[in-house]
């Protein structure tokens, strides 16, 4: 890296040569587990083996195998290109200094519908967040898609050689690495905050209730993700059965699945994603219940008091579903009849046929909310994001966990405000990467956006420091309680409001458990953004 010098650090696993940026240190591509290849494919991650000599840490490691379904424009806007490999268990660290300051640590879990992404995205560059908040920032990779979340117990029986939830176990192994190594980077292993967006936020929600993760983190931030996306054993078996069928005749045995070429695995998972309705917010590749790593849903573990309570910050964006409208040109001419068909088809995929429920939903999301397109966006935003987040906040507060919530309302002035506060828009505000790639033209020169970014960085790092998301740019951020469900609105007019997502929760709460309990069906897709569009 031109204009930067090397820096050497001694860690429990060996010596690392990173980069001194002048205003902080950066270490890229650090292995946190043994490569999950050969006999370790579909196996739980194994601790990294120490190395001798000096290991360079100035280049990002390979990303997990994934279908590159996003357009060239979006990829250039959101991330760096990188080599794909099953040898993908690497993380990256940004720190103000490798000293004895014992700074708060923030560990980022990326999104991507559990099928896309990596910790190397330009959006997740941790240098500004580390510098402005005097914290240590870590971004991680984990196995994705079938390689990370295939649960074949319902197809081949238990002890079949394919361990369920290895992608989740990768995240836990990364947290163990942080516990054992982060002090060498100037971090405090007793003040670790996990944070993530979309599938990353869903991962954080799942880790809240995962037994093996308890004690490895001390605060949690969930951005546009909750504790809701956990498949039942039955749903996981349905997905696995379809996946094996898609692999073809030779895929009907454990040996054939374990030995299939990566390309064949990716093609099969992409085909079943189209069948199972990714566009409906139903993710085939996500954590699933099993007898070892995830014996119960996180919401159940929280409600039953079976977890270590930690301060939790939960939030969503006002217009989440606007992002997914970009992948479906048919929505531009959505009329009333098509809107009602989409609602009916979506609810049928969730709970089966229920004409009365469909009629109630259509009435609730009626013309008073705007055009059929605006109503579809509101319906999906509430169902997939707002209601699950409100439910998790309610359960955390009920369990006595210090809980704060937010809604991100800032929107770029694009296409007459068409984009709204869309899914993932808050990420560059949190990391201070408003000028990354093509975002520079959209966000980087707005003084209002830069001020909000500084406010959010201060709130996030304050939360990592002491569990209170305070910032000079905000009024007092009061906690969310059952009696006072207060939410901070982050935007041009930030302030605390009550019961922001209460109406959505009261409508969708009876469906949230039923959605994951329902069997996977081959429903026609009413909307089809690129596979993996959930970031």
Description:
The chain has helices at 72-78, 127-133, 145-149, 153-156, 166-181, 199-208, 233-247, 254-259, 262-276, 298-303, 336-351, 355-364, 372-398, 427-431, 439-444, 447-466, 502-517; strands spanning 5-11, 14-20, 25-31, 54-56, 90-95, 103-109, 136-140, 187-197, 219-223, 312-317, 403-408, 486-490, 495-498. It is an alpha/beta fold and 535 residues long. It has a domain at 5-208 and 217-299 and 310-319 and 327-369 and 453-474 and 511-517: Rossmann fold (3-Layer(aba) Sandwich), CATH 3.40.50.1820. Strands 1, 2, 3, 4, 5, 6, 7, 8, 9, 10, 11, 12 and 13 form a 13-stranded mixed β-sheet that branches. A hairpin with a 4-residue loop joins strand 12 (486-490) and strand 13. The longest helix has 27 residues, at 372-398. The radius of gyration is 22 Å and the shape is globular. The model is unreliable at 70-78 and 514-535 (pLDDT under 50).
Jot down its keywords:
535 residues, 15% strand, alpha/beta, single chain, globular, 36% helix, 13-stranded mixed β-sheet, Rossmann fold
Question: How are the elements arranged and paired?
Answer:
Elements: E1 5-11, E2 14-20, E3 25-31, E4 54-56, H1 72-78, E5 90-95, E6 103-109, H2 127-133, E7 136-140, H3 145-149, H4 153-156, H5 166-181, E8 187-197, H6 199-208, E9 219-223, H7 233-247, H8 254-259, H9 262-276, H10 298-303, E10 312-317, H11 336-351, H12 355-364, H13 372-398, E11 403-408, H14 427-431, H15 439-444, H16 447-466, E12 486-490, E13 495-498, H17 502-517
Parallel strand pairs: 2-4, 6-7, 6-8, 8-9, 9-10, 10-11, 11-12
Antiparallel strand pairs: 1-2, 2-3, 3-5, 5-7, 12-13
